[in-house]
Queue: 2 jobs
Job 1
Amino acid sequence: MKNILVIEDEAALAEALKYTLGKEGYDVDIVLDGAEGLERFRTYGADLVLLDLMLPGMDGLEVCRRIRQDSAVPILMLTAKDSDTDEVVGLELGADDYVTKPFNTRTLVTRIRALLRRVEERREEDGRRQGTLRCGPLVMDLERHEVSLDGRPVRLTPTEYGLLLAFMRRPGRALTREFLLAQVWEDFYGSPKTLDVHIRHLRKKIEEDPSNPKLITTIRGAGFRLEPPEETSR
Ligand code: CA
């Protein structure tokens, strides 16, 4: 049974989530406070973290940032605001997806399922294709879920890993936004901006100069491409 850690200070909403997700077959733990939620995660872990943005004390962004310091657990942020700003900041800090309040319960359940399935499929697929993918300075160890750049480990979120995997399997090919969205987010409801944020985040981790990317380049009007080794400077 998959465990979901809900970090949400609105007790009524947290209880409703526990009830709904419980009926869907998930084991749900609720924590009403950010710092306590982080502590709880560090002690017990979880298969997925449902994280409210606006929390008293340590807010959701800070909790997200700290979880990402040493974990690739899928994180789904709950945001109350209408503006894209906080959602995008959440993605910058390593959240995989977000849902804006007020949300439809079915939508939330669908997004949780999609996120967990992505992690599961990635594991299964990696199992089937055991081995190592290489492209220039980048190496992906599919068995160990490890990525390295020039021999140094790079820590990626599940979403970034999925994106990089899509590129590493098709070096030199321009991948359209639609293709990448379909590869990484099977059920995609979010803003297309999400893809750009994750690409930018991935570049920050693997590019020498993220503002002048040499590995994952933007192909105007087409999408993005992982440059094959002979075309990269390294
Ligand atoms: Ca809140």
Job 2
Amino acid sequence: MLRIGALVSGGGTNLQAIIDAISQGSIPDAKIEIVISNSKQAFALERAAKAGIATKIISRKEYASAQQFDLALSGELISRQVDLVLLAGFMAILGPKFFEHFENKVMNIHPALIPAFSGPGFYGLKVHEAVLEYGCKISGASVHFVTAEVDAGPLILQKAVAVQEADTPVQLQKRIMEEAEWQIYPEAVRLFALGKLKVEGRQVSNSSRFKSDNRR
Ligand code: GRF
């Protein structure tokens, strides 16, 4: 049984996609043990409660330093024997202390094709505004393992989405969520749950993909 912990701050649509994939059986033998939010207003907390998942609020302002905040988060996840941590719209940056226990065991979804439009300052609608301002014809989403460097960890899955001429940032954000994020995040968790992801430096191989390539 894969024990998952999710860190959230907002609406929680990616969390919902993973809750649904577990309950439909497409992510086998997995359970979300805890959903932790750094904001008590996050709608993701309601989604978790509705699915019968334990929730906890750990707010940065309750801690004197960023390192203490990291330790409070990792301490809660360790006490729940979590094997995989999912950042699902989590709006705080985790420091090296957090990763001591969770190397290559933390995933994030970013709403662009990393390394484009990623790193500090690229979050929420800002990403899609920048993509449109640049005149990109393609954007998309990326699932990656998280390291202490923002959006720079090894890539697991990416999916492209066409930019349309009339797109507003909000329209592009919605289409990238529907066509990419809610598909590739559950798929990355499924591959992890099946033990198919192998990480070597920046390279993440996925044995199921190699198998189908061999058949061609
Ligand atoms: C998503 O766009 C995700 O890519 C980014 O934050 C947003 C979270 O949305 N990391 P939600 O809370 O999952 O609805």
